Amino acid sequence: MRVETESALLQLLRSRKLEAEVVEVLCIFWMAAKGLGYSPTAELAESILKPSPLSDLLVTSCGLSIQANNASLKEVPEDFEIPDDFNGVQGVDLPKIFRTSMSRLEVYSGLPFVRQMAFEWTENRAAYPDAPYQGDAGHFIRPLGDGFIGQLSTRTALRAISAYLRTMAVAKHFWKMPPELADQESLLALPLHPTLALLKPGRPDWFPEPTDFDGDTEAIETSFRTLLARVAAARHGDELIAFNSPVVMSMERCVEVSLVRWSQVAGGNIDDADLAAHLESFWTRRQALSSKTPEPLSTTTLVVPPTLEQLVDKACKAWPLAGTLDFDRMGYLQHDLYPSRLFFPTMSGLHEVEITLRDGQLEVEVENQVVADLCYWNAGWGPARPRQLRGNCGTALISRGKAYRKSIDAESRSLRAFYLWQIRTLQRSGSFDEFSETLATGTIYV
Closest by alpha carbon to 243, among 218, 223, 215? Predict the structure, then answer.
């Protein structure tokens, strides 16, 4: 079916009316080229009728030459006024980060980035004159009841992201923005993170049973120890560093389980019984891991580990062995993964950590040695999710041996290890009521 599929996708590409729509289709070709050895036809570049700096990056990454077409670009008129609907969709139909990025560039350069984006938003309304907003997105969410949020794939979002990309093209062509900066800013409009694009879902055999994590604190801790034992049996010599997933997903009850391994040295001022309450803010703030990349669309992500001083909580003298990835190159169609699902080893004291994809899961490498891997699975995909849940998917970060914490182990003979856990339970009695939320936290020393 390759020839037929290629022909159908090229036809789809030619029919796209918005720059963001073009990028989404191009990502299919890009994924095939990067993951399956596909050699794109020259017809691919010729089929792009709505180019942008981001589509140029994708085409170049596929090994093809771009065909410059700036004839349709024009600067915002002096008398243009920002329409109310442009301001109204910010933070509602799409994240405010696009508008924020425009404001930041405007302050830095003195050029009208925000007005240009609003102008492009007004201009691309003509792409779908009969339905520029694609109807009522709430139509698909309201039957689920109160308290649900939808996925970011509405036409309103695509129009706004397209306006953002057009503004980057105008800045590059008319305002002489450095090409490298324009490319970097365009990555905000990626549908898929290049390192995460080829992830394959696979629920592990040791996944908890739906009846686990019920009952009081003692019963919950027993379930956690059972989970750790299952991982140890399946991965002899390895350690579960982080786990975050819904384990129950129904219309009346949802249970989300979070678990992160910590290290601690003696001499802290917090009693063991009070440790979970003291560290409760970790679940909302976490430890963000800064990332960079050798090339804009590289499938490898480089993480710069924080120092131990940045990690350690001085009161209890403990630090997390996993942190979450930053928002660099975030894919807007993968927002369920951000930020709570993308845990990677903190690896303090090292210069650089490399994250690559192999066989559908992520591997964490240090000096060509794989020290951990992260797998992911679907846990209840749908058109929406309860507002309190961090995502409809789950992930697990598991070590390869103990090298991921070897350097710190050698520095202290009084090191202890514990897991910080959190259980989020959503409950409702009627199918149209909003979920009530219950949080339970604790620690388990191992």
Answer: 223
Position with higher pLDDT, 411 vs 428:
428
Helix (H, G, I), strand (E, B) or coil at 314: coil
Q: With beta carbons less than 8 A apart as the criterion, state whether 373 and 364 touch.
A: yes
Question: How far is the CA of 80 from the CAs of 71, 77, 124, in angstroms?
Answer: 21, 5, 15
User: Within a 13 Å sphere around the CA of 120, how many CA atoms are in the beta-carbon half?
Assistant: 29
Contacts of 40 (CB under 8 A, 6+ apart): 29, 33, 62, 63, 64
Give the closest residue to 155 by CA, choosing from 137, 169, 180: 137
Q: Go through the chain and tell me how many residues it has.
A: 446
Q: Which helix (H) or strand (E) holds 391?
A: none
Asked if the bond preceding 339 is cis, omega within 30° of 0, the reply is: yes
CA 365 – CA 373 distance, rounded (Å): 9
Q: How far apart are CA 242 and CA 140, in angstroms?
A: 33
Alpha helices for 262-358 (secondary structure H): 275-278, 282-285, 308-311
Residues 6 or more apart from 34 whose CB is under 8 A from it?
61, 197, 198, 299
pLDDT in tens, 62-121: 999 987 778 889 999 999 999 999 998 888 778 899 999 999 999 999 999 999 999 999
Contact 289, 344 (CB under 8 A): yes
Q: Please name the residue that has the structure tokens 């020839």.
A: 3
Other beta carbons within 10 Å of 145: 17
